[in-house]
TrEMBL record:
An annotated GO cellular component: membrane
Protein species of origin: Stichopus japonicus (Sea cucumber)
Stretches with biased composition (Polar residues): 133-144
Keyword rRNA-binding: no
Name assigned to this protein: Putative receptor-type tyrosine-protein phosphatase alpha
Tyrosine-protein phosphatase domain residues: 200-397
Domain of life: Eukaryota
Amino acid sequence: QPTVQCSIGITQFTIYYDIEGDVSSRQEAGRADPNAETFTIDGSLLEPGTTYNIAVTVTTDQEGALSEGRTVTATNPTGSPGSSVAIIIVAVIVVIIVLILLFLIVIVVRKRKMEDQPDPIDNQPLNDLGKQSGPSGNTYHSSGAVNTALNVTKAKKTKESSAASSSVIDVGGIYGNLEPPSPIRVAEFPEYIISNIDKVEHEFGLLEGSQQKHPWTVANQENNRKKNRFRNMYPYDHCRVVLPKLPGDHHSDYYNASFILNERDVRAYIASQGPNKASVDDFWRLIWEQNVQTIVMLANLYEEAKERCLQYWPKEENEIQSFGYIDVTWTKTQHFADYVIRTLSVDRGGTIREVKQLHFKEWPDKDIPENAMCLVEFARHCKLIHFKKQTPLLIHC
């Protein structure tokens, strides 16, 4: 927008403009008071990108001529392509933000509606395990009893499998004689136990499985019974850890341990009993044959003055103890608040391997730890040590 400085003696300014090359388009743009120091011409009517001739006439108290024309290119900011693009971008961003907000609002509203709807099972009391209302007519008795009725399908399966495992009765699962109860909210569980302690104890007694789900014929053989610490905890034949037989000993392939599959059906874990005098050598054979690098011990050697696990490592650090043809050296100890980590060097015929033993010391016999955080920290340390190892993690109590 052109600015013209006033001079003394001028009585009036008159401003004209026309499109270059078209004198007939000349228009008056405005007049200015000569007493003002400056004045501005409104260029809003100018077309963007067009060249105009600007003429200023000066009226004085004496005669004069028109000033020479000055060429000016005027640009209208409001109509520039750049500003239009900016407006479009802002509009698109605003629309996207609005759509995102609407999407979030819909999710929140649906979630609240789902939370507000009463769970149909919340108001249902737990089924009394002392009553059986199922259509099969099955009943149950105290520990040692079996179902009095089986459907035709299960009866046929039992007959077909009787030849392979005559000592096992298929009753549809170890707790097939019990009707599953309705769930209890976690927040209500402590109050439920306190209010129904007699009923809970009765139900727990009913869950003492009187029937095994799979055969355990090897564990129950006379030559292997002495290797079992408990008479009611045997590994099933199909998942037990089978050891290579020693020369001249047909029963040397047994130790009380079972494979446990992970989510990819890989034998990632071995659940084992703590060794006794009859099985401690086999325990180390198992560790060597399965290339176990991490042992998790969830028991103490003695509980209530009774031996719960035979010590299967040397009595003192840096000592060597032999278990059959395997030599074990206790090389290092790390003490923590609730557990101990021992490093064991295992030597068989000059081939040496390192085994880490994580011994959790605060698991009381026939009870659970008072503070769960200590167990959580222990589990984290186990994962850290066993991380990326491709061999089974052995756990025993």
